[in-house]
Structure formats: C-alpha cells, structure tokens
Amino acid sequence: MPRTVVKMGGAYETKANLQGNALEVRNLNVFYHERAKLLQKGSAITQVLHDVSFCVGDGEIVGLCGESGCGKSTLSKALCGIVRDFSGEILFADERPLMVFQDPFGSLNPAKRVGWLLEEPLRADRARTWTSAERAARIAEVAQQVEIDEALFDRYPAELSGGQRQRVAIACAIMRKPRFLIADEPVSALDVTIQKQVLELLRSLHQSMDLSILFISHDLRVVYQVCDRVMIMRKGRILEQGVVRNVYQNPSHEYTRSLLTAAGIGS
Questions:
Q1: Could you read off the pLDDT of 179-226 as tens digits, one per residue?
Q2: How is the chain split into domains, by residue range?
C-alpha cells in the first residue's frame, strides 16, 4: 500500500491582530506519529483533530465538551505548543497561554515549595525583568486574589489539600497577567464543595482581569454554570457550537442531545 503523505507545518502565531478575539483557530488538523511495527519501515500517521475552527472572544468563556478520547486534550496541547504536527492556523492576540490542569499535583513540581512555584513564572518571564521587590509584590497580590494564605508558601505541594493545590496552579497561570487561559478539566478531580469554590474563583478572575478562558470539561452541568458559549466535540470534530442556553435548549446534533440526556439535562 502507498504511504500516506500529510502536509504539516501549520501557522502558530502570538501577538496576532485578531480584532476582538483572544484566540482564533482555523482549519486545525492534528496528527500523531505512531511507532512502526516490527520489520516495517516509516511510521503510521493518525489524524486526531479534523478541520477544527473556532474563536474565543476577549473576555469570553467558551466551553469544550465531549466524551473521553474525543480530542479535547489534544486540542489543548496544540494550543499550548506541545503538539507541533498540525496543519491550519492557531493565532493568539497575546502570548502563548498557560494551562490549569485537571491534576494540580501532577502539574506542580513536588520538590519545590509553594513560594518558589509562585515566583517561577516571573523569573522565567522573557517579556520583562522583575526585580525581587516587584516579584514579591506581585506574588502577594496574586495570593490575595486566589486566596492563598502566605503561611502556605513554605509548604510542598504534597502538604496541601486538592483545593489549595489547584489555587496554586491557577495563581501560577495568572502571575504574568495573561489575556487568555486554558482550563483543562480544572475541577473534575475535586469534591463538590471545593469544585464550587474553584469555579467561583475562576469566574471572579474572569471578571476582574477581563480574562478569556477555554474551559474544557466533560461535565455539561459545570459548563452551563460557567461558560458563555459551548462547543461539542466528537472524534476530533466540532459538531456544533453556540451560546450555551441555545445549544442546551435546542441542540442541532443527535450526539449533543444524547450527551444532554445522559447528563440529566435533556429529555
């Protein structure tokens, strides 16, 4: 059989002029190279995302929903520059976004104390040099925003609760005052009470910072609480997207109706 030839090398651009959008994704296709089987040459190519196009407006929260394995995490990795085998365009009005992950314990360096973790984004800032006094002031400001007690600064991530770790992860993500944030299942690993607190924190930051957020979740009820618009993904394709209330009340795709019914929302 002839080998499949895929044209890679999509455009990944920050500081783009997007006229009111924080993010624009145009005809995004993402591919994975699989290891060749024994005695076979070359590598197999699997396409994971298919012609994905959407935008996130300034100050908007857009939800991305779909079952496990549909391509949500692959999309977030492509947006963060982790996955580079793609075609299409990924354009940001500001710098490359940071991500708040589902498991903050896995995303925080376990060998470093909270104070060090909070300071690291400022030390690594390529756009400007922060003095030690400026770093201390910014850390104190963000700690107050996300309600992290300074008594926690000398602790390691393993010594924090799940909610505290997620607050630290969010603090690290917003430390350099980004315009855009990716939240990848940020509350699914937390109990219901802590989920509510973290969601309220994200909404508060969204309002106070005019922050744009891509909120990735499998929980349609959480998306309804948080998001302005929603996109439904299946098998690497966006099946439909629109204002949350409109999509939930009048879904255009049978798959969306099945998800809503499974969540106890549809009939």
A1: 999 999 888 878 888 889 999 999 999 999 999 999 999 899 999 999
A2: 99-177
Residues 6 or more apart whose CB falls under 8 angstroms from that of 147 comprise 167, 201
Q: Looking at residue 95, what DSSP letter applies? A: S
Backbone angles phi, psi at 87, to 5 degrees: -120, 160
The pLDDT tens digits of the residues spanning 233-252 come to 999 999 999 999 999 999 99
What is the layout of strands, in order, in the sheet containing 212-217?
A: 98-100, 180-184, 212-217, 61-65, 229-234, 237-243
Pairing of the two strands 21-34 and 86-92? antiparallel
Tokens of 94: 């500001």
Residue type for position 217: S
Q: Give the torsion through C-alpha atoms of 17, 48, 65, 183, to 10 deg.
A: -60
Please state the separation of Cα 254 from the chain's center in Å: 26
Give the span between the Cα atoms of 122 and 128, in whole angstroms: 9
pTM score, two decimals?
A: 0.89
